[in-house]
Amino acid sequence: MNEFAQSDVSVIHLAVLHELLFELPSLSVFFFINLSCTLAIASICVFRFLRCNYILSRLSFCFLAFICIFYQMPLALFSTQVEASLQQPWTYALVVNGGAMLLALWGFLSRRFDCKQKVSHCPDQKFGIYFATMLFGAICLLAYLWGVPWNCTGLFALIFDPWLTLLAREFGIKLIGSSLSTYMFGAYANAVAPILILLSVWLVRDALLHRRVLSGLLGVFGGGLAIVAVLVSGTKGLLMPSMLMLVAGCYFWCATWISRIATIFLAIIFVMSALVSFEMFKERGGVVGGAYDFAACSVEVDTCQESRELLQSMTARDYSLGLPGVFVKPLQDRLYCLCSGGTKESCPTGILGDSPNMSRLSATDKAGRSLTFVNALLNRMLVVPFQVSVWHFMYAETERVEGLKTLPFSRRLLGESVNMPELVYQKYGSVYSLGDRTSTSTAPTSFFLAYPAYLGLAGFLLALVLVITLDIFLVIYARFIGESLLPILIGGIIIMCMNFMTSDFVTVLISHGGVAGLIVLLIHALLRKRYS
């Protein structure tokens, strides 16, 4: 038992603090209510989609579908664990199911806003739109590399020093903090790159159909570069928005069901393969610390204090951020020396030694590890968001929290803010991760559940108002951009809703590229109107 668990025995018995394993729920009223609400919302979503698949252009519908998948279904499946973990499980169930029911009601009342069934084609001015997207993406990447030097990025570590990839990821995203660099990279990974990859696929498709060699090469080059650039921070999960955009674009732009199914299947297989390959590539052997100089990077961007805290927190558990504990002390020594005014030559080298080479595993072992990665990925996508949301309600039940200070911009408005994802992780996430208390680790959840957890009824109503307001805005926006760009907007809405399941409303719009995606589409619409 780890030190944290020993010091907080009152919480370790809670089922949601460990990996949730499926078991038949107890046949209680709580279970049947959750199951009934889940089936009702799922039926409504399926009926509305079959009636008109362009209903996906309504953010309120996509948000409702994601709530059903990410929260209602797990709540029904794990009702027993939730009842055993929360003092007031009905409050959590009311927020999840009640919020879903009200969004479904809003969808019914506002059905006149729904897009009518239509046939969309890829925009005619593909090259103008394509180059405009590439330019916007280049600006975003240059802004990120302005704040995070290339030799300090996660992609650099992945290529030249793979066992420090996760440390480099934390440096390039978390330690840098909220800045123009991280905002621009969030815009690129969640908005610009998905659009660029989708357009690249369509350029290649048209090149194959019409034997246009140059446009095909352009699509291959641009799409490949866009994918590599997404990984510049060392965060493989940022490929998911591109997969969602590909699925949306392929579904609406393809003329037949055979082409739809084939392209969607290939898009999913490609991204899943890329995610697994990333992990396998990261675990190859090499000299740890031979290329990526964490200490020098910390001095260069002035994050010495934050870097010290990060390395110290990594000593709480072996293999924090995937790094064996024996390698942490040399990193600390070099960081202390450089941050104290030492030179790169006079300080310890930072070369930590040889790492294990997981790439030498047999084919059977590699296949087993690949399946493990896929299972972990699915668990992180479909179970962990629900689990973390329960932690937030547990925290609200056991700790005193000033709800207004948990909201975005509270520091500017109230002079003080509370970082709930960090506090929740330190109390519950560190138990789930068997003692990992890395200083940059957080446990974020959807604003749709966080606001009610800490603000009660007022937070619940605020979350609903935000979703409905954005839904109305996007209805107006969709009518302006035109039919051919509607599939791209649908892809952007799906990406936003996916991010909304694990993040704050303002964070998704600003840090995760929600607003940036709308700006890119606006530029596309203006270009189309100019050329037509």
Please supply descriptive tags for the structure shown above.
single chain; 532 residues; mainly alpha; 24 helices; 1% strand; disordered N terminus; transmembrane helix; membrane; transmembrane
Question: How would you describe what is shown here?
Answer:
Keywords: Membrane, Transmembrane, Transmembrane helix. It is built from 24 helices and two strands. The protein has a two-stranded antiparallel sheet. The protein has helices at 3-7, 29-51, 59-77, 79-85, 89-109, 126-147, 154-160, 165-175, 180-210, 213-230, 240-253, 257-282, 294-300, 304-314, 328-339, 363-382, 384-398, 410-414, 420-432, 447-455, 457-481, 486-500, 505-510, 514-531, and strands at residues 287-288, 353-354. It is an all-alpha fold and 532 residues long. The chain starts with a helix and ends with a helix. Helix 3 (59-77) runs parallel beside helix 22 (486-500), helix 6 packs antiparallel against helix 24 and helix 13 packs parallel to helix 15.
Q: Which radius of gyration do the C-alpha atoms yield?
A: 24 Å
Count of DSSP-assigned helices? 24
Let me know the largest β-sheet.
2 strands, antiparallel
Per DSSP E runs of 2 or more residues, the count of β-strands stands at 2
Q: Report strand %.
A: under 5%
Order of helices and strands: HHHHHHHHHHHHEHHHEHHHHHHHHH
Pairing-aware structural class of the strands and helices? Answer: mainly alpha
Keywords: Membrane, Transmembrane, Transmembrane helix
Transmembrane segments: 27-47, 59-78, 90-109, 129-160, 180-204, 213-232, 261-278, 453-478, 508-527
